[in-house]
Structure formats: C-alpha cells, structure tokens
C-alpha cells in the first residue's frame, strides 16, 4: 500500500511539473509546409538541447514561415521565423563544431521542457585524438586526415552559408543571421 501511495504521489508531482512548464507557453501558428522539394535543407545535424536522452541526428528544413527539424526517429521540432529574436551562425573557424543558434522570443516545448535557445550543430573532424599512436609511423596518415578535415570544414562552411543565403532570400531579409567575430 505504501509503494502505491508513493507512485501516485510521484505521478501527480510530475504531471503538476509538466503543467507548470506548459503554463507560460505562447500558442504558435502552425508551420506552413512548402511542398516543392527545393526547400533549403541541412542534413546530419544534431539539436541542442536534445529531444530525447540520447542525441540524435536529423535534418533542418526551411519552409514558408519557419524551420522544421526532423530527427531520424521521426521527432519534429518547429521554429517559426516570427518567433526568432536572434539567429546566429557560428562557422567552424578554430572550432570543432559549426553551429546555427536561435534565440527565441517565446519559449517552445519539446522534450517535456521549455526552451528559448535552440542550437543545430554538426561536428567537424575528430573531437578526440588518439594519444597512444606511435608518433613517427603515422605522419602520412595524419597529414591525410588533416587535409580531409580541411576539405570537410570547407564543404560544411559552404553548405551552411548557402543554406543561410537561401533562407534569407526566402524570408525576404525578415530573418538575418549574425556571425560572431573573434578578436
């Protein structure tokens, strides 16, 4: 009997917490989906904060009035252009990830939590390096890997830049991406 009471209390508390999270949420318009296949799209991205416990890959697609992130599992997160306060594009210059960051005017719900900041990113190259390698034996491999990483960075940078330019053209400059500069 004690365990049943505790379970009911726990369920009640989680339901109450979820309702409290939903309280401040502003109801958004629904996303107008552009059916033609020429939508600007970025593939193999991760979303932060995560939708589920594990991070999942997905694609970010620009539609008529907003973005839709669709994970490989089928989870969807919609962000409308009129809800974006700041859009920041952080290129991978000296970084291991390339990021699109959206700061929202009104929080959106996903993963049972409210979020006002959403990031879409992809990793460039290896974040971890194997320190146990024999230094002199793999010099050629390392040079090749560095060359591949440089090409990958360039490819990702141009893909993200093209995406941003297409989105800015699609929204008629209503949504502008800012790029942080380093000193």
From TrEMBL:
Q: Where in the cell is it found?
A: Nucleus; Chromosome
Q: Where are the transmembrane segments?
A: none
Which GO biological process annotations does it have?
DNA repair; DNA replication; transcription elongation by RNA polymerase II
Q: Does the keyword DNA damage apply?
A: yes
Cellular component (GO) terms are:
FACT complex
Q: Which UniProt keywords apply?
A: Chromosome, DNA damage, DNA repair, DNA replication, Nucleus, Transcription, Transcription regulation
InterPro entries on file: Fact-SPT16_PH (IPR056595), FACT_SPT16_M (IPR013953), Spt16 (IPR040258)
Q: What is its main location?
A: nucleus
User: Where in the numbering of this chain does the FACT complex subunit SPT16 middle domain appear?
Assistant: 1-69
User: What's a Gene Ontology MF term here?
Assistant: nucleosome binding
Keyword Transcription regulation (UniProt): yes
Q: How does it assemble?
A: Component of the FACT complex.
Q: What does this protein do?
A: Component of the FACT complex, a general chromatin factor that acts to reorganize nucleosomes. The FACT complex is involved in multiple processes that require DNA as a template such as mRNA elongation, DNA replication and DNA repair. During transcription elongation the FACT complex acts as a histone chaperone that both destabilizes and restores nucleosomal structure.
Q: Which family does it belong to?
A: Belongs to the peptidase M24 family. SPT16 subfamily.
Q: What is this protein called?
A: FACT complex subunit
Which organism does this sequence originate in?
Answer: Micrurus paraensis
